[in-house]
Amino acid sequence: MSSDTLSITDNRTGKSYDVPVTDGTIRAIDLRKIKTSDDDFGLMTYDPAYLNTASCRSAITFIDGDKGILRYRGYPIEQLAEDASFLEVAYLLAEGELPNAAQLAKWIDDIRYHTYVHTNVIKFLEGFRYDAHPMGMLLGTVGAMSTFYPDAKHIDDPANRYIQRIRLMAKLPTLAAFAFRHSRGLPYEFPRNDLGYIANFVNMTFSIGGKHEPNPVLQRALEILLILHADHEQNCSTSAVRSVGSSHVDPFSAVSAGIAALYGPLHGGANEAVLQMLDQIPSRRDVPKFIESVKSGGGRLMGFGHRVYKSYDPRAKLIKRTADEVFAQTGLNPKLEIALELERIALEDDYFVSRRLYPNVDFYSGLIYQAMGYPTDYFTVLFAIGRLPGWLAQWEEMLGDKEQKIARPRQVFTGPDERPYLPLATRG
Ligand SMILES: CC(C)(COP(=O)(O)OP(=O)(O)OC[C@H]1O[C@@H](n2cnc3c(N)ncnc32)[C@H](O)[C@@H]1OP(=O)(O)O)[C@@H](O)C(=O)NCCC(=O)NCCS
Fold first, then answer.
1. Whose CA is nearest to atom 14 of ligand 1?
2. Which of 42, 49, 63, 359 has the fewest CB neighbours in a 10 Å radius?
């Protein structure tokens, strides 16, 4: 018998089974042969929220939470954030290798060529209320893109998929910037194809009267944040893109499902929560009191701790440095001073140190976005722009995976057994 097996004895029947173990997993379908009788459906696994279930094989992103490792296609996140551009990282995630100069030039050119959106988009943006949440606008407009590009449904054609991925990469910043302008009642600023990806986006959001003074430090900081968010393996929004995409719907619809997932406060909303927490602390002097209230169970220190990273979040170190560079440009405001005091005290406090609660990526990203002038409800939109390359790479990988089918989990039925319909008059 191979040693790479798991022996299972079913105490209900006394029968034993050997199940192959591959890559530290057993195949759930192998358990179906474990039956108590011929008409038994077979054993299933029960795993709410997929806490211990691998739903795919993936060669894109590697995370080791205990060791604080995050790699895209084998490259450490620290090196990519230091040296790569966001579009280079997007290419790496999609194609599996870093581009050479000619490949990168083509990739950038292809994306630059597709930045404009149909002017009808402006008409339906006008239909949103003045205070519409920008994520709601983004998910609606990205979903609507499928009606502008009906050819996107031909997902079996690799050339077609490529052009739709390019369209999404090119148009998401335009749609995001339009949503930003809508919220502020500003006229839309159209893409400028003489600018790079980040510079063009910043110009579309902040330009007034056709003018915006670029700040290279802030633009690079935004680019680093986008790189740090570009993929995080099978998180909620990526699983949503894969799951919806597994029905073979077009990629605009699948990505809008990812945006919908990211909209939720448990996923993309944590950096918003950091700013909301800071609103509850009137001044720097009140920070020790606030820390004490957290320690005595009066709420959590938002932006601290991580489900996966238990030593440190490798992205948080980088982002901390980026934050310092940004604050050197923008200066500190009272909110930032409160945040930095909170960080200082928490990092020295035994409660947080002993529980290995370090600032996570959301702690700093919210502060940086705020310092850059983005309103709180826009932070998740910036996250979506960053995460798009990951969604697209995972969508492409899922479609090419012969083992994948339409996603269709099982359930454990807990409702009533069969019972007869009761006419209304006889119901008590
Ligand atoms: C991210 C998070 C959900 C991870 O939670 P988790 O891995 O399930 O950790 P647990 O809830 O088991 O917490 C372990 C201990 O640390 C404490 N703890 C965890 N995060 C804390 C925080 N942010 N502030 C204060 N205490 C915290 C818990 O109360 C618990 O203490 P105990 O052992 O005395 O009961 C959690 O740290 C959190 O809520 N952080 C704040 C929200 C946030 O920043 N989210 C963004 C994550 S990217």
1. 355
2. 49
